[in-house]
Amino acid sequence: MSVNDTTEPTRRDFLYIATGMAGVVAVGGAVWPFIDQMRPDASTLALATVDVDVSAIEPGMSVTAKWRGKPIFIRNRTEEEVAEAQAVELSELKDPVARNDNLSDAEPATDLARSAGEGMENWIVMVGSCTHLGCVPLGQSGDFGGWFCPCHGSHYDTAGRIRTGPAPTNLPVPVFEFISETVIRIG
Ligand code: FES
User: φ, ψ for residue 52 (rounded to 5)?
Assistant: First the structure.
């Protein structure tokens, strides 16, 4: 507007103001999709936790679930397998730390600390990714009857603890809990 104009906006001013507002709206419209892209989509949120029905897994059997893109080993150990793992001294272990996200970082790698806990010692839940270079170990195999990684020959025992081979640490135990007698929630 020129200095001689009255305070009433002319038609030209009105068009200018209207165009300016349209510009703001357009910017707003551009910002929203961008923020939207930064949110996890529904499928990612759905995978934040995974419930697994383990009622059909008999002692000696195992299944592999998928959680956040990783294989999760769930194994129902036999009494013999539990007894064998419980008999191992901590001094025999290559990695004496439990690596269990449900316990403190300093928890020693006893068989109990690697399992689902008191009364549920038969259940083992672990991320199925070799701690050497990430291959998926084979279950019920290897020198200790636990898992064997064929990529470079790492042997894990029935509690998923590294015993021989190049893998430096035990297979990690993710956050999980039994939400009923037969369903495990991972994550
Ligand atoms: Fe498993 Fe190398 S990746 S031993």
Answer: -125, 125
pTM to 2 decimal places: 0.76
The domain limits of the chain are 8-39, 46-186
Whether 15 shows a pLDDT value over 50: the answer reads no
Mutate to test the pocket of ligand 1, among 129, 130, 163, 171 (most ligand atoms within 8 A of CB): 130
Give the residue whose CA is nearest to atom 4 of ligand 1: 152
Instruction: Name the E strands within 4-161.
Output: 50-53, 62-67, 70-76, 123-127, 138-139, 145-149, 154-157
User: Catalytic: 152?
Assistant: yes
CATH 2.102.10.10 applies to domain 46-186: yes
The answer to whether the CB of 181 falls within 8 A of the CB of 76 is no
